[in-house]
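Researcher: We're teaching a course module on how sequence relates to structure. For the next exercise, students receive a sequence and then see the predicted structure as tokens, so they can try to spot secondary structure elements on their own. Here is the exercise chain.
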Amino acid sequence: MRPPYTEKTELSAQIAAYIRAAVASARKQGGIEGSLLGNEKYLSGVSSTATDWMALAMGRFGYRSNGTYSYMIDDGDGYAAYLAAMRAYIEKAYADNGGILHRVKGDRMAPGGRGNRGAGRRPDGFRQL
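Model: And here is the predicted structure for the students to work with:
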């Protein structure tokens, strides 16, 4: 059980509402019940702009309490499933492209790097940030 949390400002509460609405909309549009990030339909889009930005928003939408990070949106095992799919994508891209994730974009913000950073991991090694 996560510790209780209350938004401290009206702006913060509005942003929280927007993030929750975006997640609800993505679930509805995809016909997804339960985990969004862990859903097979959603995982098939790993490294796309839409999935990466959603993972970033969901992963950074949380707080630390007593050294433990708590997500504000319960997505079941979705965070771990998304990280596993992202890891597979990134490892394959590095292997296929001679150690480069994307031929034009810097690795930290290339597709994949965004989603990984959102889930609290380094884009190149899946270690905690």
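Model: If you want an answer key for the exercise: The chain has a mean pLDDT of 81. The radius of gyration is 15 Å.
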